[in-house]
Amino acid sequence: MIRIEATGLRATIQDRGRFGHLREGVPPSGPADPAAFAAAQALVGNDVDAAAIEIVGDAFAFRCDDRRIVAVTGRDVALRARDLVPGWTAAFARPGERFTVLCGERSRFAYLAVSGGIATEPILGSRSAYLPAGLGHALRAGETLPLGISRLDVERAGLSADSPDYDTGQIRAITGPHAQRFTDEADSLFFSSEFRVEPASDRMGTRLSGPRIAAREGEILTTGVVAGAVQIPPGGAPIVLLAEHQATGGYPVIATVITADLGVVAQRLPGERLRFTRVDRDRAVAALRGARATFDAMA
Amino acid sequence: MPAYASVVVRFDPLRLLPGDAEREVIRLAKTHGSLAPERGREVEIPTRYDGPDLLETAERSKLTVEELVAFHSGRAYRAYFLGFLPGFAYCGVLDPRILAPRLVRPRERVPAGSVAVADGQTSIYPFDSPGGWRLIGRTDVPVFDSTREPPALIRPGDRVRFVAL
Fold first, then answer.
1. Cβ contact, residue pair B144, A24, below 8 Å
2. Pairing with A67, which of A148, A271, A292, B156 sits 20 to 30 Å away (CA)?
């Protein structure tokens, strides 16, 4: 069992996502930063289907009632117990020991993984919270959550993973499904310009401002969308869809951010800048394979 | 994930290379050709036509409220696909005499159960949410319930009728 003593601004349970009910209009949810989520799970020895806690804002605090391995990942994060444990590092949690998740100024989404995983009852095949439809809930101070059986491997304490470079604004993207909806000029403007992250960004998507990217005249028929899709609404300000995106979208998609870089987009703060670099599908897959291999090596 | 004229197919690119996935999808599409549309189930939505945009939509369409209600409830709609929110079914097509462009300024909060029209389509808001469709009525029927299997009341291919109360 894990007891939540403080929640920060908002904390929710997330697993990889709820992909079985997209055709019923249920957004996938899951972690806004999938790479940080996967690293946290790998550090504590959980399998890929386990659930962890996504935390926004200081200062989430918890205790486990038995011995566990814990890890926090994300941008600019750390864990405080008796000692300070850096982010992206596994730590041994003694029974009843209090831990606080520290989210620095550049932090947006932090992931707390506990060996054994958060073992709440899945809803529609997933433990991921989707608050607008009342699937799961925002965690409350004082509540306790069941944990799965832990393969407790004390040797893991001190194990660390490399954090991606969150301070880079270079985001890799492949050509989007509606590329023919954009002129060559609009396409090269998109791939050569700098964009600024807007404050209205959230788990649904990162909203950008910058040069106006115009699609050709005419509308597209509403179609299914994926995380990473860069939509261009009529105003010309791109939106990068993230974990909590709607199942369908009616705006043309100029590019799709590669899975390996999704978290770097999600973790950018309002006012920070980013640029898109075009890569081909092979490089997108190679980047994902590289990230996945690192985690597999920790298993 | 089906929509009007597309299907999204999800796959793990580390287990199936994108090029192979593409070839397989093309092969499947070719071997199956076109399928006869599913008949779908009949779903009835008891509706009180008292939405905040009812009168304005009737006036815009140069119809009386009674005519608008008769046109909206007078036909069976096909549910094309679900999106936007869990259980939100895009149903069509609306009688062309009902003129209902999307609101220029979407509402910040549309109540759950609102029966709405926009751009030749009609639907029911499953949850309180922002929304840009015109609200002509409401229903007490829960259109999405995560404890139900399947959770969505309306599924792609179903035929939907609104019954005036």
1. yes
2. A292
Angle between helix A281-298 and helix B18-32 axes, rounded to 10 deg = 110
Where does residue A105 rank: exposed (0-12), middle (13-18), buried (19+ CB within 10 A)? exposed
Q: How many other C-beta atoms are found inside a 10 Å radius of the C-beta of residue B97?
A: 11
Please give the domain boundaries of chain A with CATH numbers for all domains. Answer: 2-156 (no CATH), 170-298 (2.40.100.10)
CATH superfamily of B42-164: Cyclophilin-like (2.40.100.10)
Measure the CA–CA gap between B126 and B89, rounded to whole angstroms.
9
**Would you call A204 exposed, middle or buried from its count of C-beta atoms within 10 A (0-12, 13-18, 19+)?**
middle
Which of A223, A259, A283, A294 is the best mutation test for B, with the most CBs of B within 10 A?
A223
Between CA A229 and CA A174 the distance in angstroms is 10
Residue A280's alpha-carbon distances to A34, B18, B145, in angstroms, are 21, 11, 41
Could you read off the pLDDT of A232-265 as tens digits, one per residue? 998 899 999 999 999 999 899 999 999 999 999 9
Nearest residue in chain B measured CA to CA from A204: B84
Q: For residues A159 and A298, is the Cβ–Cβ distance under 8 A?
A: yes
Chain B nearest CA to A79, separation (Å): 32
Q: With an 8 Å Cβ cutoff, are B86 and A26 in contact?
A: yes
Beta strands A229-231; A239-241: pairing state: antiparallel
Structural domain spans, chain B: 1-35, 42-164
Nearest Cα residue in chain B from A20: B1
Cα-atom radius of gyration of chain A, to the nearest Å? 19
Could you give the CA distance from residue A126 to residue A140 in angstroms, rounded to a whole number? 20
The model scores a pTM over 0.80: yes
Alpha-carbon distance of A45 to A34, in angstroms, equals 16
Give the pLDDT confidence of B43-85 residue by residue, as tens digits. Answer: 999 999 999 999 999 999 999 999 999 999 999 999 999 999 9
Neighbours of A14 (CB within 10 A): 28
The answer to whether A242 and A262 are in contact (CB under 8 A) is yes
